[in-house]
C-alpha cells in the first residue's frame, strides 16, 4: 500500500507534505523492526489503519494557524504525526507515558523534519499547559479520559468549532457517551470508502460539555 490513498482523500497537499507522507512508511517500517510501535498486523496497512484514520479528525476540524493541539497517549505518533503534516501552521504537543515510544516519535519527527511538534514522556495528568484541542485514539474510555485531561483545554475559543476533545472511537458508543449530552459523533464512512472505516467514528466533546459526573 502506498501514500496514494492519502492523496486520494487530501488533494491539496504541497510537494513537501506529499514527500513527508511517502517517507513516513519507510521510517515506521525501520523503527518497527527495533521497537514494536505499530502492531505487526497493522504495519502493512499503515496508510489506511494509522495515517488515514488519524486524518479522519481533519475531516471534522481544520485547525487554524497558531492553534495548539495536544495528542494524548500518542504511542507511535497517532493521530498527532499525520495531523502535524497536514497542518504545518498548527502547534502539536504529543505525550505518552512510555518513554521508548516517545523516543521513536522523536526520531520520526526528525526524519520528517517536522518543526511544529514537540514530544513529551509523561502521563497527561502531569503535563503542564492548556490547549485549544485535544486529539486521541485508543487510550481510555471517555469518563477516564475526561478526568485525566481536566483543565487542559483553553476556555476562550478562536475557532469555528468550540475548543474541545476530538477522539477516534469505534463501535457502539451509546453507553460510553450517555453522560455527555452535547457530544457529537461523526461517522468516518461518510468520508472514506475503505472497509476498515465501517464502524469508525470521531467523537467531538466541546469544552463546556454537560456531563452528569
Ligand atoms: C493503545 S495505545 C494507542 C497509541 C496511539 N494513540 C494509537 O492509536 O496508535 C495507548 C497509549 O496510551 C498511553 N497512555 C495511557 N495512559 C496514559 C496517560 N495517562 N498519559 C499518557 N499516556 C497514556 C500508553 O502508554 C499507550 O502508548
From TrEMBL:
Binding locations of S-adenosyl-L-methionine: 73, 78, 124-125, 137
One Pfam family this sequence matches: GidB
SUPFAM superfamilies membership: S-adenosyl-L-methionine-dependent methyltransferases (SSF53335)
Cellular localization per UniProt: Cytoplasm
Top-tier EC class: transferase
InterPro entries: rRNA_ssu_MeTfrase_G, SAM-dependent_MTases_sf
Database matches in CDD domains: AdoMet_MTases
GO process annotations (BP): methylation
EC code(s) of this entry: 2.1.1.-
Keywords attached to this entry: Cytoplasm, Methyltransferase, rRNA processing, S-adenosyl-L-methionine, Transferase
GO molecular function: methyltransferase activity
Family: Belongs to the methyltransferase superfamily. RNA methyltransferase RsmG family.
HAMAP family: 16SrRNA_methyltr_G (MF_00074)
Biological function: Specifically methylates the N7 position of a guanine in 16S rRNA.
PANTHER family: S-ADENOSYL-L-METHIONINE-DEPENDENT METHYLTRANSFERASES SUPERFAMILY PROTEIN
Name of the molecule in the record: Ribosomal RNA small subunit methyltransferase G
Species: Croceitalea marina
The organism's taxonomic lineage, starting at the top: Bacteria, Pseudomonadati, Bacteroidota, Flavobacteriia, Flavobacteriales
Amino acid at each position: 500500500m502506498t501514500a496514494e490513498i492519502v492523496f486520494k482523500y487530501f488533494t491539496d497537499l504541497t510537494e513537501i507534505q506529499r514527500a513527508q507522507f511517502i517517507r513516513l512508511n519507510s521510517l515506521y517500517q525501520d523503527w518497527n523492526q527495533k521497537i514494536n510501535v505499530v502492531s505487526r498486523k497493522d504495519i502493512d496497512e499503515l496508510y489506511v489503519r494509522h495515517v488515514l484514520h488519524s486524518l479522519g479528525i481533519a475531516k471534522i476540524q481544520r485547525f487554524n494557524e497558531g492553534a495548539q493541539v495536544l495528542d494524548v497517549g500518542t504511542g507511535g505518533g497517532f493521530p498527532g504525526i499525520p495531523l502535524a503534516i497536514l497542518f504545518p501552521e498548527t502547534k502539536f504537543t504529543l505525550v505518552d507515558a512510555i518513554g521508548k515510544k516517545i523516543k521513536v516519535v522523536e526520531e520520526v519527527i526528525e526524519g520528517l523534519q517536522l518543526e511544529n511538534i514537540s514530544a513529551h514522556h509523561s502521563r497527561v495528568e502531569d503535563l503542564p499547559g492548556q490547549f485549544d484541542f485535544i486529539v486521541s485514539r485508543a487510550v481510555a474510555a471517555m469518563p477516564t479520559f475526561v478526568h485525566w485531561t481536566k483543565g487542559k483545554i483553553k476556555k476562550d475559543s478562536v475557532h469555528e468549532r468550540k475548543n474541545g476533545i476530538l477522539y477516534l472511537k469505534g463501535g457502539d458508543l451509546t453507553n460510553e457517551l450517555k453522560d455527555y449530552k452535547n457530544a457529537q459523533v461523526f461517522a468516518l464512512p461518510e468520508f472514506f470508502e475503505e472497509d476498515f472505516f465501517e464502524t469508525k467514528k470521531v467523537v467531538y466533546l466541546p469544552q463546556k460539555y454537560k456531563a452528569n459526573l
